[in-house]
């Protein structure tokens, strides 16, 4: 399928899913809107999901992602921390997004530590790229190059990036 066909199909299925108004349908809508650069719509969809289930850590993570991409990383970090409190055994993806938020707040030392921990705990493809950018801001050139190499290796292994 072409990208255009994928988008049309995904919108069709989302429209069907929204008839049930579940938190999951709103999370999917939020991610789709975020991917389209419609950040306020992404935030709104996540707010609807949280209204349906205020205890769902996935909702807090979804809100964090929406806020980070909308240019509010500090607010996003607070939502990630809420997600972590609701889900003490949170997956490494939570650390990834906390590191991205810290990067967005220009708290590069914290971001490096958080992203390094995320990498230790997972093979999430995108994390080494954020770590490389973080190291770049810290003028840690060799470590940045090593992180880029790790990103390239992970991307080659998975065949995709994001």
What does this structure look like?
This protein folds into 2 domains: 1-75; 91-162, Alpha Horseshoe (Serine Threonine Protein Phosphatase 5, Tetratricopeptide repeat). The chain has 9 helices and no strands. It has helices spanning 3-17, 23-35, 39-52, 57-69, 73-86, 92-104, 108-121, 127-137, 141-158. The chain is mainly alpha-helical. The model has no long low-confidence stretch (mean pLDDT 90). It is globular and about 50 Å long.
Let me know the largest β-sheet: none
Query: Could you state the order of secondary-structure elements as H and E?
Result: HHHHHHHHH
Number of domains: 2
Large-scale geometry = globular
Report how far apart the termini are.
Answer: 19 Å
Calculate the mean pLDDT score and round it.
90
Structural category: mainly alpha
The counted number of beta strands is: 0
**Number of helical regions:** 9
Helix content: over 70%
Could you tell me the radius of gyration in angstroms? 17 Å
- Uncertain residue segments: none
Portion in strands: under 5%
